Amino acid sequence: MIPNAKPYRLWIILGALVLMHFVVRPWLGNPRWAPDFLMLALMMYAIRVRPGRAAIAGFGVGIVGDALSQIAFGAGALAHTVVGYLQAWGKDVFFPDNFVVNAGFLFAGVWVRDLLMLLASRGTMGRELLWQLGTWSIVLAATTTATGVILMSMFRGWLRVGNN
Predict the structure, then answer these.
(1) Distance, C-alpha 129 to centroid of its chain
(2) Cα distances (angstroms) measured from residue 103 to each of 23, 76, 127, 161
(3) What pTM does this model have?
(4) Residue 54, Cα to own-chain centre: how many angstroms?
């Protein structure tokens, strides 16, 4: 164990998630269902900070995602900013160390992010919007949530909200 690593535990995990997003995720198959490690990192950070800092982090993640996406530039920044803010705000309403609550937040966060990105981009409407939200967004949210729950159970001591 690294001496005095306690304050850096969360940052080590967040850095690993960012690295996994760009190194591991392309090897996991279709990006429609491969876990979104950047979103997972944002949400793990957002639940530990105030809403303003979470919104700024969400904006940064969104800009990075927009730079690599085919969707309209700015849609990801808007969606990630809103989700980061809501995730940080939600920790005051719910218990942030509860697995069920975290799983619900992860699932809802990915799905709401997809909804906002689709609405803010290219005017996706009607059947195409319903198909995307009803199938691919749910599958992506489920795989990201499963990955997050596994990660939270493996590193429970490191990711405890009051412990960082």
Answers:
(1) 21
(2) 24, 22, 28, 15
(3) 0.83
(4) 11
